[in-house]
Amino acid sequence: MDTWMRFMSSDGGIVFGRVESGYLHEYESLDQPVPTGAVLSTRALTPLAPCAPGKVIALWNNYHALAAKLDKPVPTHPLFLLKPADSVIGAGEPIRRPLSYTGKIVYEGELGIVIGRRCRDASVAEAGDAIFGYTIVNDVTAADLLNESPHFPQWCRAKGFDTFCCIGPAIVSGFEWRHARLVTTLDGVERQNYPLADMVFSPAEQVSLISQDLTLEPGDVIACGTSLGVGSIRDGATVSITIDAIGTLSNTLRAARADTVAQVRSNETTNAV
């Protein structure tokens, strides 16, 4: 297995490469994994989300245990929504509560598939070859917005706020997902602990079937869906999601600043007059 990360250097540039023993062996890019020959100490670098996806495809109802609990039929094709690129943050970065939203914010610990090459109408075998590696995703949701309108479920709005897609800390190629578990803790208390093998669609099946709907580009991420144990995050609480061999993705929910919220509400009142 190889571990891949993305960093910001001291001069503001972005570097990507294979990490080993505290050093980054730089490569051209994720879609052109050609070594540049540069070797940098990670202590002098600032970690970022390990990739910069053009889109994140987030699955719903992709675990047998959760489907059974919700009394939902197992889907015959992946059920998914899109999260925007601006929603992506890396490990250690704060999840920011939207200024105008005071409701429930929910975590969802998920395995993430990182695409390594352009993929369209791929067979399962071709799809497997298109997977660069695997990462961890926290698919954050403003839960009260989902059914705010009785006429239109607002999946993209509820899941698409800036900072609502935590990805990291690394991408691992050669990861054997069938024998791994995902564990989520909230302020150190275990909330999720489930086997990745319980997925309805395997990663290669997900890539193949989704590629029949839209083109997958290098760096795009598929969040494989979550299982039992989803819950809400209090302001100031830290969610940590661990998959052995990939690492731990930790992010803290930051409350909206009171003075900024007051100004937003004042502006809304003024505009309504």
TrEMBL record:
The keyword Metal-binding applies. InterPro entries: Fumarylacetoacetase-like_C, Fumarylacetoacetase_C_sf. One of its GO terms (molecular function) is acetylpyruvate hydrolase activity. Pfam families: FAA_hydrolase. Residues 55-253 form the Fumarylacetoacetase-like C-terminal domain. Keywords: Isomerase, Metal-binding. The keyword Metal-binding applies. It comes from the Bacteria. PANTHER family: ACYLPYRUVASE, ACYLPYRUVASE FAHD1, MITOCHONDRIAL. This is Putative 2-hydroxyhepta-2,4-diene-1,7-dioate isomerase.
